[in-house]
Amino acid sequence: MAIDPEDLPSGAGHVAANYPEIWDAYAALGKACSEAGPLEGKTLRLVKLALAIGAASEGAVHSHARRALAEGATKEELKQVALHAIPTLGFPRAVAVLTWIEDVTDPGGRATRG
């Protein structure tokens, strides 16, 4: 699975560039998992966003937020996923994640808020 390491976040890009056989196996596993059931498109991407939120992975939240937008999700849908983290993961985590999503949906917006 040829992928340009420049299109990936820095850590993943480093692995893809330096260990392409490992990256290809990882990408194939991700593809197989995505195809293992009926979820697809925007719904699947929102699930992946939720998993990234649960893992507290800022880079993955950024990536899945961008990809969800490309799949047709709205800013409001992404933010709703973050808000659903409040009862399970706690208010501070949800607030942090909401800012990570807003890095993608509203770049520069935090600087103008109080």
UniProtKB/TrEMBL annotation:
Q: What is this protein called?
A: Carboxymuconolactone decarboxylase-like domain-containing protein
Its lineage opens with: Bacteria, Pseudomonadati, Pseudomonadota, Alphaproteobacteria, Hyphomicrobiales
Q: Listed GO molecular functions?
A: peroxiredoxin activity
Q: Which residues form the Carboxymuconolactone decarboxylase-like domain?
A: 20-103
Q: Which species is the source of this protein? A: Lutibaculum baratangense AMV1
What the entry lists under Pfam families is as follows: CMD
Top-rank taxon, per record: Bacteria
Q: Which residues cross the membrane?
A: none
